[in-house]
Amino acid sequence: TAFKLQQGEKLRYYTYEIKDKKTIVIASKGVRSKTYEDFCAELPENDCRYGVIDLDFETDDGRPTSKLVLLTWNPDTAPIRSKMLYSGSKEALKTALPGVGIHINATDAAELDLETSILPTCRKFA
Known about the structure:
With 126 residues, the protein is of the alpha+beta class. It has helices spanning 36-41, 80-96, 109-112, 114-123; strands at residues 11-19, 23-31, 49-58, 64-73, 102-106. The chain is built from four helices and five strands.
């Protein structure tokens, strides 16, 4: 399920930002060796981003698996205009990423917590 660039390199994640209020562009890329923590470190504290991460985890019955997750980072501290822009553009990004079945919205650090927030959601789809 690893998503690839044209060069064939396998990546752990992408983050996306909206440029000029209209264009969704790649803000950063994480190589396969990067972690979920690295992914979260790419998210600005006071502005919105989208992210897609290939998350490796164990199912409730202990099987290793991975899922592509689209995360919308919409922190409470972001400007209202930015929050509205990212909320309104999410459907377009979802359409452009057909292989991503799990969509998670996060508004603060607690909602980004891997063990308590992200993995329980992912396991529902595993």
